[in-house]
Write a structure and sequence with these properties.
The protein is built from 4 helices and 6 strands. By secondary structure, it is of the alpha+beta class. The strands form 2 sheets. The protein has a 4-stranded antiparallel β-sheet with strand order 1-2-3-4. The longest helix has 17 residues.
Length: 149
Amino acid sequence: RNYGNKILKQRGGMDSESLSQALEYLGSSGVVLSVEKKACLQTSLVLACRDNKFHHIKFWGVIKGIQKDYYITQGIKKDEIRDRTTLYSQDCMDWKLLPSVDDELRVKSSLIQGRFTGDPDYVAEHKVTKRLGEGEGSEENTTTVEMKE
């Protein structure tokens, strides 16, 4: 336990005290983690920082899903602006890369409505209907926009 805190402090990231404080702030907004989840999170962030060779790591918070939640963290290498990697976990142990957002994904995400399910393989759909032409001769063109959660 002390070894992990030492790594985080050497790399300039959050130490156990600031993580605990951040989790307390989350608690004020209704998000409360069990003692087990907090311990898991604290340990796995140290390992994620080390394994990914991050300079430091920041815990962003929790996205609540219907079935499962997403825990979000961001690892930062030497360049604070360009070297950021965002990771997610559903069990506070196994961290996976969150895909980067491009313009197409931004547009799709603005169309999709509803809550997160907590299943990263779930594909949300939204139908976009456009009317081509006017009056009786007009036609409807329906396009389905799909996006993985």
